[in-house]
Every structure is written in C-alpha cells, then in structure tokens.
Amino acid sequence: MTKLNFFHKGLSFKFALTITAVVAGVAFTIGAVIVTMDWKRFQRELEDRALLLAHSIAVTAPEDILRSDYWSLYKSLKNMANQAPGGMRDTRILTGMVLDPGGAILAHLRPNENPLGLRPKHSGELETRMFNSAISASVPTIIRGGIGEDGFLEGVVPIYSDEKLLGVVRIRLSYNELYLKAQRSAFVIIGLTLALVFLGSLLGALISRRITKPLTAMTEGMEAVSRGDLINISHVPATNDDELGRLATTFNKMAVELSDKKMLEEQMAVSEKLVALGRITAGVAHEVNTPLAGMMNCVDTLKKHPDDHQLLERYLPLLDKGLHRIRLIVKSLLVELRVEDATETCDPSCLDEVKELVEAEINGKGINFIWENHLDGDLQVSSNQIQQIVHNLLRNAVQVLPEGGTVSFRSFKDDNCMVFEIDDDGPGIPADHKNQLFDPFFTTRLNGTGLGLWIVYRLVESMRGMIDVESEVGHGTRFQVTLPATDGSA
Predict the structure, then answer these.
(1) Statement to judge: residues 430 and 313 lie in one domain
(2) Same domain as 442, residue 473
(3) Which residues is 172 bridged to in the sheet?
(4) Are residues 176 and 30 in the same domain?
(5) Could you read off the pLDDT of 379-418 as tens digits, one per residue?
(6) Cα 245 to Cα 387: distance, rounded to the nearest angstrom
(7) Which of 14-18, 100-104, 337-341 has the lowest mean pLDDT?
(8) 444 φ, ψ to 5°?
(9) Domain that holds residue 107
(10) 421: helix, coil or strand?
C-alpha cells in the first residue's frame, strides 16, 4: 500500500525525495568511509604507542637484567605506567611485564598477583596463545586479543645484549580509548551527515519546485484542454533558456494556437447556426409563400367580383387548402422536443393502427407491404411519438417506391430497448444527400415539404434514442430506430 501511495505522489514530491535520498546516500557513504579511516588511524596510533612504551623499557632493561636488578625493572615499568597519558586509572595500560627467554617473570606491574620467577597466570586459551607468541617474538610485534570495547593489544619488544636474547617486554593497552575516539568521530560525522541531508532536502525542494512549477502549469493546461476549455489555458512563465524554458515556450505557443482554434471553431459554429437558421427561414418563406401567393390571388379576384358566386365556390376550397398547408408547416416546425420520461404505455396494437393507415395509402399502387410486429406486452413509451416516427418513415418509403416495390417493417425488443427496422428496395439515397437527409426542408420530391425525416430525427433525439441509415443507390434503404423502453407492468 505504501508503495502504491508513493507512485501516486506528485512529481515535485518524488524529485525532492530522490534528491534527498541521493544526498543522504552520498553523505552516509562518505561518513562511513571517514569513520573507517579514523578507526584505522586510531588503531595505528595505539599500536605505535604500545611499541613505543615497550621500547622505552627494552632500552634500559639489559643492564638491570644482567645485574639481576629486578627492582629497577619494576620501577622502570612503574614510571612508564605513571608517565603514560591517562595513567593506570583510565586503564589505557592494562598491564606490563618483563619476561626472560623461558617466559618467567622478571618484573610485573602487578607483582602481588604475578610473583617473580613464575610464568604469568593464563586465564584461557587466548592468554596462552598470546604468551607463546610473545616469548617467541624475535622482532618488535603487535599482538591483538579480544574484541569490542573490552579488547586489547600488546606491544612486544625483545631485549637483546650483544645479540643475545635476554627476555621480552610486553605492554598491554586497552581498545577502550580507541572506541571512545571512534565514537566521537562518528558523532561528528553523523551530525555533519544529518546537516547535509537537511540542506539536501531544502535543495531538493527548491530544485523540484523550479522543475515542476512549469510542468504543473502545463498539466493544468492539459487538463483544461481535456475538459474542452481551450480559452482559459494558463500561461507558463519561461524565465530561462534551458530545456524547461524551451518546453514552456513551446507549450505557450500551443496554448495560443489552441485558443485561436477554439475561437475559430466557435465562430464557425455560430456561422453554421446562422446558415442553418437562414436555410430554415428560406425554407419556411418558400413553403409559406407558395400557398400564400395563390391565396392572395384568390382574395384579389374575389374583391373584384364580390357578387360572383361561381368564383366564390371555386376559390373558397383553394383558400381552405392553402391555409391548411400553412398550418401543417407551422405545426411541423413546433414539434415538441422536451426530454422527459414517458408516463403512458404502448402495446402492439398501437403499432397496428399505423399499419392500417399505411395500407390505406398504398392501396392500388401495386406495392408489397410486409409487416412483422414482434413486440409483446406493454412498454412504457410515448405511443403518439412512436406512431408518428413509424408512420413518417413508412410514408417516405412508400412515396419513393415504384410499382411492384416492397417495403417491410419489423419491430422487436432488445434488452431495454425497442427497435424498429424499415426496409425498402427503392432507388436508394445518393452519397451526397446523406449528410442533408435530416435537414429541415430538404427533399428530392417535387411536392415534398422536407419536414418528415427532420421531425423523425427530432422525436428520436427527444426520446434519447438513435437512428441509423444504410442505403446504396439502386439497392434500397434501411432505417433502424432504437428507443429506450421499459416494461409497462413494472
């Protein structure tokens, strides 16, 4: 879970964390190297001190040994221990002794525990091994024993007189001082490392802020683009002439171009709406002016001959027909488009009413009509709108069919949708007419109004449905209407 949360963090957080981790890694690595080097340096200093102390005894010891003046040997050891830094109280010198070639004690810093003439007491295998190494040493040697803070080392220096081995000096120093020095050095290094980590975190935050600030602005701009808001894209400041500066400059150019494109698209949309409005206005004017011109001629004639009953009987039906045509055009333009849930139900019989109307229209035209209504049960849809959609599509198909043509209707339920399919084997629709098929007043028939398919499209849209058209010149046309519908018994 933590890993996922990290990968979902922002880029500025990742940059800062990465830089901090790099600085911390480098600082801790350098600190570890310095602590290790200090440890080795302190160890060499301790070894040199042990050999130096042992040498200070070995220089004066030959004369005392030859004279068997063991008291002088003991005093030399005692003076060496007292003069050494820290003295015996800090246990820097754990012990010191002078042994003869056979390993017998000639002088010891703790004479009460180690009598003269006897070998030192060995408390374990380590002491025995160190004793054997010491009495067999022919040159100054360092012997290490024990580990940790309780560890120690010995400086062993053989005593010669005229190339004759008289004995050996053993001076044992504790590692405790070494550990204390290494500990102090480690604390200093850790403090410096933490300070570097803190400074690295600040530096990482500043760098990540500088790097991600333009990227954040670009991200917000791209989010605005994804929302379609191409006008209000934030300008990214390009202060430096580096990769980020060039990227910001390119982004700003893109933002300006997108904004200009959006404004151009809006202007084109307004122009298209004005063109569509002009086309509708022209269509309305044309459709209304045609019957209106005839009606005005009829009225002028009746004004000139008000007492002519024959003209009255002749022109009144024409006036009535023209008014009805104008009323039909206006009514078609005012088709209801409110998107709302249907509150009425439609059973298969509501479509059968349309079947009877279509059969009456094709009576005597030699057109084959195939009807397949596979709907069953009540469906909660707007029956009036359904009837108008089906009737308009079937009428269009019948009007373009030649004698002997076939039109078929099929309805069925697909999940929560009602589907209508109207097929005909008529002349088909040319490719250049398909884009205008649902435009108002677009028609290829001399007496057509061009409002039937437009009304169908708007009704289907108001019912949250879809309409698809498949057509090929010379092979007929298929309309498929899909409308959402639920079970009316629910």
Answers:
(1) no
(2) yes
(3) 95, 154
(4) yes
(5) 666 677 788 888 888 888 888 888 888 999 998 888 788 8
(6) 64
(7) 337-341
(8) -110, 0
(9) 9-182
(10) strand
